[in-house]
Specification:
The structure holds 3 protein chains of 3 kinds.
Chain A (H helix, E strand, L loop, with lengths): L1 H28 L13 H10 L6 H13 L14 H36 L4 H15 L2 H15 L12 H30 L2 H8 L4 H13 L1 H15 L3 H6 L6 H10 L2 H29 L7
Helix pairs in contact in A: 1-13, 4-5, 4-7, 5-7, 6-7, 7-9, 7-10, 8-9, 10-13, 12-13
Chain B lengths: L1 H20 L4 H8 L1 E5 L15 H10 L4 E3 L6 E3 L2 E6 L5 E6 L13 H12 L17 H5 L11 E5 L2 E5 L7 H5 L9 H6 L22 E7 L3 E6 L13 E5 L4 H9 L11 H9 L5 E14 L9 H9 L3 H9 L3 E3 L21 H10 L11 E5 L4 H18 L3 E5 L2 H9 L5 E7 L5 H5 L16 H12 L3 H18 L2 E12 L4 E2 L15 E2 L4
Parallel strand pairs in B: 1-10, 13-14, 13-15
Antiparallel strand pairs in B: 2-3, 4-5, 5-7, 6-7, 8-9, 9-10, 11-15, 11-16, 12-16, 17-18
Helix pairs in contact in B: 10-12, 16-17
Chain C lengths: L14 H18 L1 H23 L31 H37 L1 H16 L2 H12 L3 H27 L3 H8 L4 H9 L4 H24 L11 H10 L6 H28 L7
Helix pairs in contact in C: 1-11, 2-3, 2-11, 3-4, 3-6, 3-9, 3-10, 4-6, 6-9, 7-8, 9-10, 9-11, 10-11
The chains are: A mainly alpha, B alpha+beta, C mainly alpha.
Chain lengths: 305, 540, 299
């Protein structure tokens, strides 16, 4: 186990390095730069600006400089927000996104796994239809429709919440609900599908034959294998949900890191793009590792290699 | 006794419940505490008044810093700022400002002429590379210093004969020069703070952070939570503090126009930065008292790439311009968002008004296209109309223009919306055929926008070059008197109409939502807000 | 057959014949599932409408009526018109062509790559699996907006790129799901049996393992399709994919969401069409999953 994790850690470090290298050069080949603005500046001014940020050095030199400061844990200054560093920006915003993500994930898991399980064990009854109907509705109505609809109904018409912002605990309700529902829908579908695969396998029949209660059969035996697809889905999904959602953070003006993933690319804020990518990559790799460990636990026949 | 206690409890309970169902909104609380809640469009990149290039950050800088002169809420009247009076020499080339005695920094230090000198120097500093520096180019020697050709600031025409006097010499008579001086780029700087954070010739210093920032305006920086709220509080040391009606202004960087309008409706904002395109008509239709609109110094136009066929032929460009039915666009598509544009610069800018230079004339458009060798569009290459944005208004207008060109001229036009910075790159590289373009004027004078027609100007996206125009523009800059200047401006406009490197489409009208309790709000063309003139009173 | 009841029959019988009857049985079972049949028919009707419908309409998708502007449903325009006075029904049908094509093609790409990749990684395991899965991690992590802009810069606006861009991200999770299922199944008795019968690896993967992970694949596919259709709207935002005046369901819904208060029909009809399609797909998917589940059919 320890050997497995060490080896995976080293592999992931190499993968992370490749991601950083690829991203570093990708952003540089995209047209437009951090200082391309609506009003063109004279070439002299542009030259000075680039010199200030070291953009006039050869690209390989900039790349080595970046790796050097990265090794010291310094993600560099932001181009768009000159008086803040990328470390500060991510440090400010990640906790917000993580809070939003954790609360949404709780909503998604409870609702998704709950409804999916109900649908599977009461298959082809009205319970299944209602639960599956919820899942399908959730999949087919995008968040950029659900969000504004809830704002109109609960914030503007009913006056229960602020339309946007992240000031009081009440401001957490709408964004967490919308983001949670968006993930609950696919989770409920995957849970139902995964459980149906398992519920007819012999070891479940054996358990039933031995007189185990239905509740025990489901929770002790079936869920362990039936959640396999859900767990695979959850690796990348959790990384996505914890690093914020662009749409949700925009609709509800949540000061999270999710908006920066898209905006930093649009702003050509090279260092911030790299910062968000490193953050996301590290999370993806850590969570996929966690998923592999969880899957080995869920299915004793799978060995960690 | 017991019954009484029960009654009290009941009353308290009812109060608690009703209190819960009808909570006080931020806007209502604001009326009590004189706190103004303002939507501010996007997170301010920095609060450095010199490097700043964003209008929304300008709103904040206007509250924090005071310059020599200030602009009233009408966007026209120049009022005394740190300078209590000034003189302009008869030739219009020398400006002498006299600073008021009581001007103070927020930490109590006196605001001196040297602070302004240091600020001019900083704004022009080549290492700082301020993007907007060209607005200072009317000042003698400013351009050479800013572009690194001269190392001596003493060669720049700014002097401080004593601690309370500033003399500025201009290269040419720029009648708009006082308006330029009201811009945030001419804010003074508190030199000890700058030095402490190494900010004289460096970007991104920590001197603009709360706790560090020392300013001289009607408000001081209280707190700044990125992407959440930025708070400024009334500055008791401001010379005119007794006339400042607001205790606090809270700027919310709401970067989604839909979310901003929602926030206004739930009572989170007194003032919005803008209004979504599709909401404008609805508010206007029901005569909502919150809706305030005003023409602004912005023209939306079509830019032709004049160096490449088919638009290297002025007749083709003119045909495209004449085929635009601007009245119809204004009535059916813009619906209150713009006025039809028949000149490049909005009439009235800088006080100049002319009869229209351009018109809608489909018959003439067809004629011109035939003369150019494309009768009814036959043989005309299929062209792309490049758009720099996917926003609703840009797309809608683009599709309407596409249809007009196709129907009137018989040409095939495809729309090519492009990511913003990719589009800017195409624009600078002149690798487009026609594109939707806009210009926000930096100051209230036609010269600002007419510069875009000059050969080699960095913003001459059309790549257009006409010696007659260059001569006419030089005449605008160096005109000895008003009639000569006026004539030169008319010549420029006529050349743009005839040669059509740019086809003006409409002049922008901006809309805000302003709560009825905001007193003193005045929409103006410069989008200038004099925060000292505003106050709050709960509407009855 | 009793002793073989725990093994899917596919292993033991003659492969070709068995393949036929497996699919035929599935088809028979599918026909008994009312919801699935409804889903299938609804999808066929929607597809036919989108492909043939526009030819029967009075209006073109780009035909503007500026003076009319946005109007509610009426006799002349059954679903109303948008802000440029264009007929929403026609635009919805044209948009359906784009969305269905994108949904189908991109999902097909994602399915082919994802399933093969995941199955190979899961089946062989070891170093190969490590390399393949770290490659997936890397692809998850690259900034998508930058990737798309680069694609366009180097290859221009090409509709093929749309499928490449969508396919490039959508197969990743599929690959991880298939891999985990394959890893779980490859140690089961019937696979060991197939090995001992000397079947080749390719045959074991495609004939014996994959049919047993079809359930999760089908469910995840029905989840991928709406994602793909909405991603198309984001890509057209970046300038890739359909451009105005052409439309797609994703773009119409996004557009309608911004105007839901003023012109609700612009959201309601595209939203309803999109939901109907996805419900039908899910009904069909659930039906297929049940029909193909050899074990459950024996209950």
């Amino acid at each position: 186990m320890l050997r497995f994790i060490t080896s995976r850690f080293l592999q992931s470090l190499l993968a992370l390095f490749l991601v950083i290298t690829a991203t570093f050069f990708m952003v540089r080949f995209v047209p437009g730069g951090p200082f391309t603005a609506e009003k063109a500046v004279t070439p002299e001014i542009l030259k000075n600006l680039e010199a200030h940020y070291g953009l006039n050095k050869p690209l390989w030199r900039q790349y080595l400089d970046y790796l050097g400061s990265l090794a010291r844990g310094d993600l560099g200054p932001s181009f768009k927000y000159p008086n803040r560093t990328v470390n500060e920006i991510l440090g400010d915003k990640l906790p917000v996104s993580a809070e939003l993500g954790a609360e949404s994930l709780a909503v998604a898991l409870v609702l998704g796994i709950g409804l999916g399980t109900l649908a599977a064990i009461r298959r082809n009854t009205w319970i299944d239809y209602v639960a599956s109907g919820f899942g399908m509705t959730g999949i087919s109505i995008p968040t950029f429709v659900v969000g504004p609809l809830l704002v109109l109904a609960l914030a503007i018409k009913a006056g229960w919440f602020n339309a946007s912002g992240w000031y009081t605990p009440a401001d957490r309700v709408l964004p967490c609900l919308v983001l949670g529902l968006a993930y609950a829908a696919p989770i409920s579908r995957l849970t139902r599908g995964g459980l149906l695969e398992i519920l007819h396998q012999d070891f479940i029949r054996t358990a039933r034959a031995k007189g185990a209660s239905e509740f025990r059969v489901v929770t002790r035996h079936a869920l362990r294998g039936g959640l396999l697809p859900v767990v695979s889905f959850l690796g990348p999904a959790t990384a996505g949900i914890l690093t914020g959602s662009f749409v949700i953070e925009t609709i509800f003006q949540v000061p999270g890191v999710g908006r920066e993933f898209v905006n930093s690319a649009f702003n050509r804020d090279y260092t911030l793009v790299l910062g968000t990518v490193i953050l996301y990559a590290a999370l993806i790799m850590a969570l996929n590792l966690a998923v592999d460990v969880a899957q080995a636990w869920m299915n004793p026949k799978v060995r960690l290699e | 006794m017991r019954a009484q206690a029960a009654l009290t409890l009941l009353a308290l309970g009812t109060l608690a419940i009703t209190g819960c169902t009808r909570r006080e909104t931020a806007v209502e609380a604001g009326y009590r505490t004189a706190t103004l809640h303002v939507g501010n469009s996007a997170e301010p990149p920095d609060l450095d008044p010199h490097t700043n290039n964003a209008a929304n950050t300008g709103w904040i800088c206007d509250a924090l810093f005071e310059r020599l002169v200030r602009l009233a809420n009408d966007g026209i009247t120049i009022q005394p700022g740190v300078a209590e009076r000034w003189e302009i020499s008869p030739d219009g080339l020398t400006y002498t400002f006299h600073l008021r005695a009581g001007a103070q920094w927020s930490n109590g230090d006196a605001v001196t002429a040297d602070d302004f000198l240091a600020a001019f120097r900083r704004f022009l500093e080549p290492k700082l590379a301020c993007e907007a520096v060209n607005i200072a180019y009317p000042i003698v020697g400013a351009r050479d210093y800013a572009e690194g050709r001269s190392k001596h600031f003493s060669a720049v025409g700014v002097r401080a004969p004593d601690n309370r006097t500033i003399v500025i010499r201009l290269l040419f008579r720029a009648p708009y020069f006082l308006t330029i001086l009201t811009e945030s780029h001419f804010s003074p700087v508190h030199q000890p703070t700058l030095d402490r954070f190494n900010g004289r010739d460096q970007r991104g210093g920590k001197w603009t952070q709360p706790g560090n920032l020392v300013s001289n305006g009607p408000f001081v920086l209280q707190s700044w939570q990125p992407n959440t709220v930025l708070v400024v509080r009334k500055n008791p040391r401001y010379w005119n503090a007794s006339h400042v009606g607001l205790q606090e202004i809270r700027f919310y960087p709401i970067d989604d126009v839909g979310a901003e309008e929602h926030a206004f409706r739930t009572g989170q904002l007194h003032v919005t930065y803008t209004l979504p395109f599709n909401k404008l008509a609805a508010y206007a239709q029901r005569h909502a008292p919150e809706l305030v609109t005003a023409p602004v110094l912005r023209t939306e136009f079509v830019t032709f790439s004049t160096q490449r066929p088919p638009f290297n032929d002025a007749r083709v460009r003119r045909a495209f311009s004449l085929a635009i039915d601007r009245e119809r666009l204004a009535a059916t598509v813009l619906k209150g968002r713009g006025d039809p544009a028949y000149s490049y610069v909005r009439p009235g800018v800088g006080g100049y008004t002319f009869p229209p230079f351009s018109r809608y004339d489909p018959a003439e458009a067809k004629n011109l296209l035939r003369e150019a060798g494309f009768p009814d569009g036959s043989g005309f290459p299929s062209i792309e109309y490049t758009l720099g944005s996917r926003s609703e208004d840009v797309l809608i207008l683009g599709q309407a223009l596409q249809q007009m060109w196709q129907q009137t001229l018989g040409v095939k036009v495809t729309l090519a919306p492009t990511e913003f910075k990719v589009w800017l790159d195409l624009l600078r590289a002149k690798s487009f055929a026609i594109t939707a373009d806009t210009w926000n004027m930096g100051f209230n004078d036609p010269a600002d926008m007419l510069a875009m027609g000059v050969t080699g100007d960095p913003n001459n996206d059309a790549g257009w070059s006409d010696p007659r125009y260059d001569v006419a523009f030089a005449a605008v800059q160096h005109a000895p008197d008003e009639p000569a200047r006026r004539a030169a401006i008319a010549t420029c406009e006529q050349l743009i109409a005839d040669e059509a490197p740019y086809a003006p489409v409409f002049f922008t009208i901006r809309a805000h939502l302003v709560a009825p309790g905001v007193v003193g709000w005045q929409e103006n063309a410069l989008q200038n807000i004099d925060w000292t003139a505003l106050s709050l009173a709960a509407p009855k | 057959m009793a002793s073989a009841s725990s093994l899917p029959s596919a292993v033991l019988a003659e492969p070709i014949e068995q393949g036929n009857s497996l699919w035929r049985d599935a088809w028979l079972r599918l026909q008994k599932n009312k919801l699935a049949v409804f889903g299938l028919w609804a999808l066929i009707v929607i597809t036919v409408l989108c492909v043939a419908g526009p030819w029967l309409m009075r209006y073109g998708y780009e035909e503007q009526n500026l003076d009319l502007g946005a109007s509610a449903p009426s006799g002349a325009h059954w679903l109303g018109t948008d802000t440029l006075g264009r007929d929403l029904l026609v635009r919805l049908l044209y948009g359906g062509r784009v969305s269905l094509a994108v949904g189908l093609c991109a999902t097909f790409v994602a399915l082919t790559i994802g399933v093969t990749y995941g199955a190979v990684a899961g089946f062989f395991g070891g170093k190969l699996d490590a390399v393949m899965m770290r490659a997936v991690d890397i692809m998850y992590s690259l900034p998508f907006a930058i990737f798309v802009i680069l694609l366009m810069v180097f290859f221009g606006r090409n509709i093929i790129l749309l499928f490449v861009a969508i396919g490039a991200v959508e197969w990743l999770t599929m690959a991880r799901i298939v891999r985990s299922q394959v890893m779980a199944i490859k140690k089961m008795e019937f696979i060991e049996a197939a090995r001992s019968l000397g079947f080749g690896r390719r045959r074991i993967i495609f004939r014996h393992i994959l049919p047993n992970v079809l359930g999760p694949i089908i469910v995840y596919t029905t989840l991928t399709i709406p994602g793909v259709m909405l991603l198309e709207a984001f890509l057209s935002f970046l300038g890739l994919g359909v451009q105005p005046p052409m439309s797609s369901w994703g773009v119409l819904i996004k557009d309608g969401a911004e105007k839901m208060e003023e012109f609700p029909w612009l959201l309601v009809f595209p939203g309803a069409m999109f939901s109907l399609t996805l419900f039908s797909l899910n009904f069909l998917g659930d039906g297929l999953r049940d029909a193909l589940d050899v074990r459950s059919s024996k209950d």
